[in-house]
Amino acid sequence: MNPYLKQEKKTFIHTFNRHPILFKKARGHWLWDEKGKKYLDFFSGLAVCGVGHSHAKVLSAIKTQSQKIIHASNLFYTDPQIKLSHALTKRWPGSKVFFSNSGAEANEMAIKLARLWGTRHKKAGREIISFNQSFHGRTLATLAATGGKKSSKDPFAPYPAGFKSIPFNDVSRLKKAVSNKTIAVIFEPIQGEGGIHVATRPFLKKLKTLARQRNFLLIADEIQTGMGRTGTFFAFEQLGIQPDIVSLAKGIAGGLPLGATLAKPHVTKWVKPGMHGSTFGGNPVACAASLEVLKLLTSAALKNMRKSGDYFKSQLASFRVYSNFKELRGRGLMVGIELNCPGAPYVALAQKMGLLINCTQKNVLRFLPPYFLPRQDMDRGIKILHSVFQQLN
Ligand SMILES: *Cc1c(COP(=O)(O)O)cnc(C)c1O
Question: How far from 197 is each of 13, 191, 192, 227, CA to CA, in Å?
Fold first, then answer.
């Protein structure tokens, strides 16, 4: 084992269990480790490198912008940030944007916007409803929003108040949970970390009706589903639902850290200067990279990604023959196979055979391949997966 990796325990605070691979290089849908072993990417750096690793257009924008100006602070204007604000809000006409550095921060802003709106509209209280198995980030407020029971033994308690979580896709529980205290419902169109659970039509329909009847906001956490991942720029475009606030991060800047919170004017109009901010948010280099990502996500590209996603899912459907296969879920290039057994050995064997995949919730294999993966390399990965399933069946 590489000596760095042995040393790791001495210098890192142990928040991650990492795979024992040291990556040295990545291009497109391939990564290379220290020994020069090549890996096919079905993971995209956790949905971050959607356009592929070090895309030529992204690289060139990073180089050009970093030679001009890397940071100016948000007390001034820079070109990439202005251009990106136009390009992003054009994808959701009428919206405005706030830039941060990560998904958790994008959701923090979404929560603040909802509370501000709630302060102006609700007398009874300010409660945000979220769903079990959701994931909204690792800050205290986004953890409070992240669904599931928090026991009194939780080492990070107390959490900010005003959050309540209920089962996902459960229409009757949703109906019961909303009250005149509800200011917002935060949801992922497809739960990512939670195990690739797709929001159902009847559930979304009810959510939409209730939001109108009971006057609360809809926050779509599109940090994993957005930026084309499910075959449309935002996943909500396929759902017949219009949120009031949308958070983006992960795939937004081709690998650089950037978060964005978009919202409609009835939400943003209450914000006054000084209410929110970020030192690094909307960094010019990250924004320049993001502009290139947006340029790559044309309607023709998105159409191809939908086709590619359909093909991918049809290939994965043939895994039904294996006894450990339980269910196939997902949309576009965000797909999961739930197993009847732990997924860790599958991930490890795939790695050994040169394919990067992920496992979430212990038994859901998660596939997040890069957007422009050629058919022959998709087939190559599927072939490796068949071999993995055959060996572990
Ligand atoms: C990854 C993720 C987050 C958190 O993003 P960070 O950049 O890690 O803070 C929030 N919501 C969803 C749906 C995510 O997938």
Answer: 31, 5, 7, 18
The span from the CA of 154 to the CA of 171, in Å, is 29
Cis peptide before 158 (omega within 30 of 0): yes
Q: Is 287 helix (H, G, I), strand (E, B) or coil?
A: helix
| Residues 219-271 pLDDT 10s | 999 999 999 999 999 999 999 999 999 999 999 999 999 999 999 999 999 99
Place of tokens 């064997």: 349
For the segment 144-167, what is each residue's pLDDT rounded down to a tens digit?
Answer: 999 876 776 789 999 999 999 999
Do 300 and 149 form a contact (C-beta atoms < 8 A)?
no
| Ligand 1 atom 10, closest CA | 136
Centre of ligand 1 from the C-alpha of residue 330, in Å: 18
The backbone torsions φ and ψ at residue 365, rounded to the nearest 5 degrees and listed phi first, read -75, 125
The full DSSP string for 154-184 is: -TTPPPPS-EEEE-TT-HHHHHHH--TTEEE
Q: Is the dihedral of CA 107, 109, 115, 117 positive or negative?
A: negative
Q: From the alpha carbon of 107, which atom of ligand 1 is closest?
A: 10
Tell me the best of 16, 131, 134, 136 to mutate to test the pocket of ligand 1, counting ligand atoms within 8 Å of each CB and taking the most.
Answer: 136
Alpha carbon of 287 to those of 35, 53, 93, 172, 284: distances in Å? 34, 17, 19, 42, 5
